[in-house]
Amino acid sequence: MTTDVAPLDRSSSFYVAGHRGLAGGAVWRHLEAAGFTNLVGRTSSELDLRERDDVFEFFAQVQPRYVVVAAARVGGILANSTMPVEFLSDNVRIQTNVLDAAHAHGVERLLFLGSSCIYPRLAEQPIKESSLLTGSLEPTNDAYAIAKIAGVMHVQAMRREYGHRWISAMPTNLYGPGDNYDQDSSHVLAALIRRFDEAVRSGAPTVTNWGSGSPRREFLHVDDLASAVLHIMQTYDDPSPINIGTGTDLTVRELSDLVAAVSGYTGAVEWDTTKPDGTPRKLLDGSRLAELGWQPQIGLEEGLRQSIDWYVAHRPTAGPTG
Hints:
This protein has helices at residues 22-33, 52-62, 77-82, 84-104, 142-162, 188-202, 222-235, 252-263, 287-291, 300-313; strands spanning 14-17, 39-40, 66-69, 109-113, 167-171, 173-175, 206-210, 216-217, 219-221, 242-244, 250-251, 268-272, 281-282. By secondary structure, the chain is α/β, with parallel strands linked by helices.
């Protein structure tokens, strides 16, 4: 694992692809706080990253020195399982266009942000980076996972063929300010926050959650992700992706109980076992990142309270971001 990487120049042009999303927004805030003065971002309405010519024209104009690729079509288990074509096609086009344009315009440092779903469904726990491509994927999000795997391979190919010092990082499940709370496309934690908040406000006597509640999941606050991204860009230079996680997990049922308690919900909770559970367990091995000197700082209960407060303050607009 190579770590001889120079600190990033705070005055150089730094493009955050997807800067209005959950992950990209947190990266943007962290870079601003860290003193970066030349940040560049475009909303999806200003620049459609699926349009190759537009992406190349943008890179020609901006000439970024650094890039974080946080732009992606993302969604929960319902969206992934019902729209696999869109998740595969859109993400492959987004990341291919950005990576190729970054190569064409000499981007010095680039971090591609993947997802823990790239790992096999039944990978040994906690999941090491070496588990990639060693087994079958989770069927409910295999199209999205394949797209992200293609991004990892694209970065590795750029390193091998052109010598770019580009890297990939694989975060665990993310949550925090700016999350998507849309009822059809949100991830599990955001879905639970919305569900329990609506139940509290309506006085509903019961809440019904998807699946059995038995799968185990790990959750990382996006502000911790953002600090990890900058730390990795300044300390890590290796073809292998590097995991970003907390090292702890809990069952979805335990998570539901925690969200209910913090939300103030006191009614009954039922489980619809006709709905899919997804991967049985997904806990990342974060030892390689720990060796680089990074540790998460925000505990789940603290982060959950922040997330609920943010959702309550942004209910009317807490849907997909662009």
